[in-house]
Structure formats: C-alpha cells, structure tokens
Amino acid sequence: MTVFVLLLLPAIQVGVFGAEEYDVRFLWAFGAMVGPEDKRELKPIKQDTELKSGDQMKFLVGIEKKCFVYLFFTDEKEKISLLFPNTFSQFDCPFFPKIYYIPAGEMWFELDQNTGQETFYLLASSKRLSSIENLYDDYSTASSKQKKEIAPLFFKKIREKRKEHMIFEMSAERAPNIGGRVRGLTESPQSGPSIESIATEICTTDFYCKTYTIDHKEKK
Amino acid sequence: MGTHLLFLLLSGLFEVWNARTTDSLFLFRSSSPYFKAPYNEKIVHLDITDSSVERLKNFYLTRSHHAQVIRNLAEMDVAAILYDFIFATPRTEKEDRELINAAKQAECVYFGMAFRLEEAGKSLPDIPQKESVSNRAKKQYLDRTKWHLNIQGDGDEIYRGTNAIITFPELASVSRALGFLNLNVDRDGVYRRMPLVVRYNGDFYPSFAFRAICDYLSVGPEQIVVKPGVSITLKGAKKPGDSSVNDIVIPIDRQGNMVVDFIGPWERLKHYNFVDVLLASTEREVLKLWKEELSGKIVVVSEVKTGSADIGPVPTDSLFPLSALHSYTMHTILTESFYHELSYWNMLLIEVLLLITIFMLSSRLASVYFSVGAFCLAIFYLASVSALYLYGHIIANIIRPLLVIGFSSLSIVVYRYISEERERDFIRATFSRYLSDEVVDELLESPGGLEMSGEIKEVTFMVSDIRGFTSLSARLSPRVTINIINRYLEHMLEVVSKYRGTVNEIEGDGILVFFGAPIGAEDDDERAVACAIEMQNEMVNFNEEQRQRELPELGIGIGINRGEVVVGNIGSERRAKYSAIGSALNTAYRIESHTVGGQILIGPSIYENIGSTLNIIGTISARFKGLNEPMSLYDVAEIKGKYNMILPQKRHEEYAKLDPPLSIRCFPIKGKTISDIPIHGQIIRLGQFSAEISLEEELNEHTNVLIKIDLAEKRQLSEIYAKVISFEKSQSSNLKNKIVIEFTWVPEDVKTFLNE
Fold first, then answer.
1. Which of B123, B133, B479, B544 would you label with B614, given CA atoms 20 to 30 Å apart?
2. Domain annotation covers residue B281
3. Chain A nearest-CA residue for B279
C-alpha cells in the first residue's frame, strides 16, 4: 500500500499549464493491485477492464479548486453506493485543497468472490448535481423494492447529464492543400501503463464524467 | 445557325462555360437560406483527419484501428459502413485477420474497388494480367458478384470496366459488397456526375454508392431496370422505417451517369471523428451513447488528412474531399432529388421559340427598344432557367440560348444599322436640298424622322411667287433672268432657312415651303407667317440691289395655308421626292394666286390658330373650285409676340385723272391662258402702281389680266400685267363697269409712258 501512495506523489505535484482557467480541476487516480499475492503489481485503471477476485483497488481524489466530485459504485446486483464524498453535506463545508484516499489511509478495497460487472461512476461538476444527489438520497432511504425502481432513474439521470455535455459531431475538417505527401512514423501503442500516469490532473470547464466497468472474474 | 456552328466548332469552350454557369446555380442554392436543400442526416461521414492523427500520435493507421472502428460501428448498430478504401493486398496475418473478422461480424461493410473505364468506341490498350492465384480469386469474386440487370435499349455507350483493382478477395468476400470508386470528371476538371453502373464481362457492376444505397433500399439487381440515356429504375424501393414501397426513377445519360445533387460544400455533411468512434469502446457507457447517435445511419469512412490526394472541385466546393461524392450520390438517390438535363431537341425547341420572340420584337420595336427588349428576354430566360432549376429540378443549357439571343439581336441591330444608315444617307441627300443641315440633323435624330414611307400630317404651306415674272423673263436675256432668279432665291432661301422651313419646291420664281413636315413644331403657323413677312421685307433689299443693277424691281405675293395632307417619299426607287398630297396644298397655291405684289394672304385655318397675334388689314372672300362656300382670306400686315414684325409700308398711291381717258383692251387670264377676246375699256385714273378702269364687261375680283394700251399715234407699247383688286358693277346701262387693277408687271417703256 505504501508503494502505491508514494508512487502517486510525483503525479500529484504535476500541474497542467494554464489549468487555472478551468472550473473543474482535480487529481484522479484509480489503481489496482493485480497478480499473485507474492508478486502483486500496480495497474492503472484507465478504461473498462477485467479484474479477478482478490485483486485490490484504491482511488485518489485531490480537489485543487472548489468543484463537486462524486464517485458512485454499482455492484453486479446493481446496488448503488456512494464512495465519495462520504456524505453530500461535505460540500457545504468551507473549501480547502485536499487529497482524499478511498478507502482512507492505507486500506485497499479487495474484490470478493461475487463475480460480475461492477461499474464506477466518476462525476465532476462546477455546480452541485442536485438532481443526482436527490435521486441517490431517495435511493439510499428507500426499501429494496423501491430501490429497484429508483436505480434505473439514477442511471438514466447520469446518462442524460453526460449526453448533455458530450459532443459527438465535429466540425468538418479539411486538409490543407499541399503539393506533396506527408509521411510519419508509425508509433505502436505503448506496451503497458506506466506507474507515473496513474494520477492525472483532470481539468474541464463545466462537467466531467467517466465510467469504469470492471469485469469481475473469478480467480483461477 | 451561327450559334450552333460555334458550339459545334468550339464545343469544349462553350460546354465548360455552360457547365460553370450551371454550377453557379448549385452554389446559389447551397448558400441561400431560402433555397437550401434539406440534408438527410441518415448519411454521415467518419473522417480520418489531421486531428485524428494528432490524437492517435500515429500517421499510418493500422488495419487493427479499422477493425476496431468497424466493430464499434457495428456495435452502434449503423445501417451501413462504407469504407472509401481499397485494401488491395493483404498485409500482416494478424491485422488482416482482425479486419476480416470485424467485417464479417458487422455484415454491413462495403469496400472499394476501381476499374479502368472505357468509353464506347474508345478501347484502351490491354494491360496484360498475370495468371496468378490472387488474380484468379479476384476474377472469380467479380464474376460471382457482378449484376445481371434488365437493360431496355442500347447499353453500348455505358462505360466498360476493365483491369479491376479490388479489395483483396478474402476481405471482399466477407464484406457486404464491393463497389467501384471511379468518378467521372467533366472536361473542365469538375466533378458533377457519377456513373452508377458499368459494363463488366457481359454484365454490370455497381458503383460504391449505388450498391450501398440499393441494399439500404432493399433493392436487388433483379429489381433494377436500366434505360440508357433515360433512367435507372429501382423497383419496389423500401426505405427503412417506412412501410411504403415505391419505384425510384433515376435520370441518367447514355453513359450511365447521374447528375449529383450537390446540396452544399464539404461542411454541409455531418462529420464525426474517426478517433472518437475508435475510442468509444474504451467505455461501455460511451459506446451506448454513440449508439444512440449513429444507430441506423450510413457511415462513410474516409481519409481527409493532409496529403490526401482525393480532393477536387465540385459545383459547390472548389476543394472538395471526393469521398463525399459517394455520400452526395447516395443522398441524391435517397432524397430522390434528381436533376433532369434537357435534351438537345428540347433545347433546340426553346431556341426556336426565343428566335421567334426576337423576330417579333424586331418587327415591332425600334432599334433602341428592341435592344432593351432583347436584353430583357435574356434576363427572362436566365430567370426561367433559374426557376426551372430551383423549383423543377431541371437543368437547361444557359449559354447557347443566351448566345442565340445575343447573336440574333446583334445581327438584327447591325442589319438595321446598315439599312438605317442607307436610309439616313437617302434622307440627307433628299432633304439637304430643302433644309438646313441643322434641320436635317434634327430630322435624322428624331425617332419618327425616319418614317418616310408616308404619313398623314398637319402641315403649313407657304407659297410665294414673283408677280409678272414670266412676262419679265420674256423680255430679258436668259443669263440676266437666271442671274435675277438666283439672287432672288438666295435672299429668300436664307430667310426660309432662318425660320426652319422645308423648301420643298422651287419652280422658276415660285417657292413652296413646308412648315411642320417632315418635323412638326408647335409654332409652325407663326414661323410661316413670320417667314413670309421677313421675305417681303427682304424684297426691299433685293429691289435696292435691282435698282443698283438697273434691273426692274420685283414684287412677290405669298399665300399661306394649313391642313392635313399625306406626306412621304413619292417616286420610284431611283428617283423619289418628299412631297405632300392634299387639298390644303392646292388651296395654298390658290390663295397665293389671289395676292398682289407685297401681299401676304392666309387661309382660315391659320387665322384660327394664330389670328390673335396678327394684324389683319383686310379680308377677301374667294371662291375656289371644289368648294361650295367662298373662303375668307386674311391680308396680314403684322405679326406680334415672339416674332414681332411688320410688312413694309404700302406705297401711297396718288391717282391722276386722264382726260381724255386712255383706251385699252383687257385680256383676262385663266390659269396660264390669256383670253383671245379682249374687253374694251378706258383708264380713267392712273397711279404709279394701279389704275381705275371702266370696262364694257364684268370682271371678277382677283382676275389676272393683260392690258394693252391703244395709243392714238399707233405706237405699240408693251403689255401690262395686273390683277383686279375691286370691281364695282354699274347700275346704269350707260355707265360701264368700274374696276381697280394693281399692276403686277409694268415694263420700263410703259413706266416711262405712264410717268409722262
């Protein structure tokens, strides 16, 4: 666990040039310790991925500027949990830059034996996402029957919010008219994620959303 | 004819010119918010751009990238994926396998191929194909996938495809289909039309876009009917999501080309970035959102990064990535927004109609108005062509009909100019004899001035004549006579010219002047009277000259009348004269015949018009042949107003009583004939210019008479010519009739005798 935190530190110090102009600015890391117990190695989770029972996970959220970061989790039974903040009332406290580890301190989440698809929803916004907060509050206080009704609404709301801020179409791009041909080096994709890139600074003007779907497989 | 000949000789130049003009209609439509054609967003572009390269940090995309994109697009449930690529050869086993698997799973991927296209009658030299496994496989693939179409008509002019380059057979066979990517460029290098099918090995092969859209519309080759030069019909076409089935009729030319409806530039299409779709699969949620965006769409994947060679001009864009030609071809068929080009015979009919209109205009309008009319016709044609294009989706030839209008109008104007010049020369030659150059110029400038074929006009005629000049000339030598008459005319014509009269006739000592023909003016009558007074005044100067030359003094009488006559050129082609025909002219001559020297008589019409500006010193009632009622003639002494002139003072006459009276014989003159039978009488009182006579018989007023004096010593004197001014019939049988005569011509010997 110590290694993970230490390795995070250099990344935490990295700041994006001109990042002051963004309303949403925070540090983010999602790492997993994979492999046999005696030979675990840190793997940055950057996209949908596959993990096995027994693998460990940890998150880092470093708030540099006042913005609202949420991390929700749904397990294979679509049960929704709030991983960050602890409670939404945390946003009402006076802001000061701080790094949060989830779980706190040196603890790591460990994947249990319940396999299936598990999804993490990372949301960040310059404004509080009250509609999502309310839906989650409703969900958390509801009976298990009601939860089944509220959960789709909750996911739908997140999708709507994301679609609202997503740009699919691009403006038509034209190539400059040149008298010649362009040649470039073929760069093969990097062989594996480097540990330095675990923590990245995420900057955006208004809203950010990313989902990580973990295919939780049984350890062979 | 000339225009058609020009088009035949310089067909390249004019075709290009016409095509460029038609392009401007496409450009206008695409840029006009009102006429902009709607864009069916079913067809979208997925572009590999410079920003894609920057984001991937890789200039050369691998087949793995393409495989991933195909997988992602298939996941997004798109209707068709059109890869504007020819993967001509295998590359690496791993990548090829990945691409083949992706295409196979997607089941809706189209890849490109290319033919060498041959026009009918223009066979290209054969490129030998090596016998190899891959060539055999290629041929087998093409033979397996070619289309057998229902051809109605002669399809020989449809392009023939040879020497195909296709996506390698293993990939081609798992794709939905291949289609040829060949484009058809016009003579000026602009892409306007797309061949939809080509002949291949006894059957047909579809183009990339045509093949994909046929599949999209669930139209198989058995449902396609080709009528070369007319149409390709897609029978029973069914649009996804639309339960209705209909036949789509695509107009084509003899080569099988369809005019593409360019609804705008490259930017008009909806574009997505290749990398966005490539990376969409990194997050399942994102992929779901993309699915909502692209589901059911036809996606054309093309490369438009820097260095892409596939850029060319189209009517709406000078640097158009040509992959979008396939998109616009599909869009044209999908939206059924076809353009029909009018055939040669249709255009010929339009040109004939335009020519008829031009000739109708030329027969009704003067050159200036005709030119304006021809210009308006050209504008009307342009507007009609634009309207046909915008509202009827019909493309008509623009340049050739405009040239037909231009050439025919120009020919007519030139012809008219030459013939009008000839007529002007004729007018100048004719009228310069009668008119000042200034009036002739004005006549030529006047729009109606060239109407010389005859017209009815109100004209004022002024007739002048020297009293007794005939008898005078008989006594003078011809040289002196001509000298006198020429000097006289010089004086008089200068005056006439000053008052802008048209000297129509000079017959001996008589002058006929028109006021109001050929050019009319408001003050024709006033000018005529003013001219007459100045002529009489000028006679004072002329007579002074005569005295100095010791020649007899002359007196002129002037008659003026106005009325409606026919004026125009009368005569044959070789000899014609501008003349007037009508009673008003004859009356003018008759009025003049009633004048004595120094007198101006005007007819009633002149008096009615300008009587208020004249000083009339007497009225004569004259009876003319053909008129039931006597006509009042007015003796003018002065004109007031603008011209303000007075006749020379009448000479004061003092009579001497002759005792005994002088016996005379009086011979009345009727016309030009002197009566043989004399009337005997006596001069009772004698003045210098007139005399009182008692005659045995009656004599009408204004009768011209020849008087012979009978002297006792049998001296023979010259005759005196005179006009009866007044007549008084005696009531008593004893008394003879008393007349007053005014001498119109008194020879010098008689003058001497009378003075004695």
1. B544
2. yes
3. A47
The CA distance from B43 to B41, in Å, is 5
**Reported confidence tier of residue B606, pLDDT bands at 50, 70, 90:** very high
What's the 3-state SS for chain A?
CHHHHHHHHHHHHCCCCCHHHCCEEEEEEEEEEECCHHHCEEEECCCCEEEECCCEEEEEEEECCCCEEEEEEECCCCCEEEEECCCHHHHHCCCCCEEEEECCCCCCEECCCCCEEEEEEEEEECCCCHHHHHHHHHHHHCCHHHHHHHHHHHHHHHHHHHHHHCCCEECCCCCCCCCCCCCCCCCCCCCCCCHHHCEEEEEECCEEEEEEEEEEECCC
- What's the mean pLDDT in B252-279? 92
**Among B399, B321, B344, CA closest to B20:** B399
Is the Cβ of B50 closer than 8 Å to some Cβ of chain A? yes
Confidence of residue B285 (pLDDT cuts 50, 70, 90): confident
Last residue of a domain, one of B396, B431, B466: B431
- CB contact (8 A) between residue B59 and residue A182: yes
Q: With a threshold of 0.80, does the pTM exceed it? A: no
Strands (E), B266-415: 270-273, 298-303, 311-314, 317-321, 340-341, 394-395
Domain termination site, one of B431, B457, B472: B431
> Using the beta-carbon criterion (under 8 Å), do B288 and A159 form an inter-chain contact?
yes
The answer on B629 and B493 residing in a single domain is yes
CATH number of the domain that residue B537 is part of: 3.30.70.1230
- One domain, residues B95 and B229: yes
What length does chain B have? 756
Helices (H), B560-719: 583-593, 604-610
In A86-105, the residues whose Cβ lies within 8 Å of chain B are none
Whether B686 and B601 share a structural domain: no
Q: Which two tokens stand for residue B91?
A: 């590359």
- Rounded Cα distance between B392 and B33, Å, is 18
> pLDDT: is B579 or B223 the higher one?
B223
Name the minimum distance, in Å, from the CA of B389 to any CA of chain A.
28
Count of structural domains, chain B: 4
In a domain, B399, yes or no: yes
A168 touches chain B (CB under 8 A): yes
- Whether residues B304 and B383 share a domain: the answer is no
pLDDT tens-digit map of B78-127: 999 999 988 888 888 888 999 999 999 999 999 999 988 888 777 666 66
The first and second tokens of residue A183, run together, are: 């040649």
Side chain identity at residue B199, one-letter code: R
Task: Specify if B441 maps to a domain.
Answer: no
Closest-CA residue to A124 (of A203, A58, A45): A203
Domain hosting B522: range is: 447-646
Residue A153 phi/psi, 5-degree rounding, is: -65, -35
Please, which residues 258-287 of chain B have a Cβ atom closer than 8 Å to chain A? 266-267, 269-273, 276, 282-286
Residue B189 CB partners (closer than 8 Å, separation 6+): B312, B313
Using CA atoms, how far apart are residues B575 and B567, in angstroms rounded to an integer? 16
Nearest to B60 among A162, A178, A186 (CB): A186
| Residue B496 and residue B640 in one domain | yes
Asked if A175 and B57 come within 8 Å (Cβ–Cβ), the reply is no
CATH of the domain at B680: 2.40.10.220
Q: How far apart are CA B179 and CA B110, in angstroms?
A: 7
Cα dihedral value B723, B724, B726, B729, nearest 10: 180
B166 closest CA partner among B149, B187, B143, B184:
B143
Measure Cα distances from B382 to B7, B141, B484 in Å.
19, 50, 70
Output Rg (C-alpha) for chain B, integer angstroms: 51
| Residues B305 and B398 placed together within one structural domain of the fold | no
Are residues B296 and B411 located together in one domain of the fold? no
Question: Which residues, other chains included, contact B71 with Cβ-Cβ below 8 Å and sequence gap of 6+?
Answer: B102, B105, B106, B281
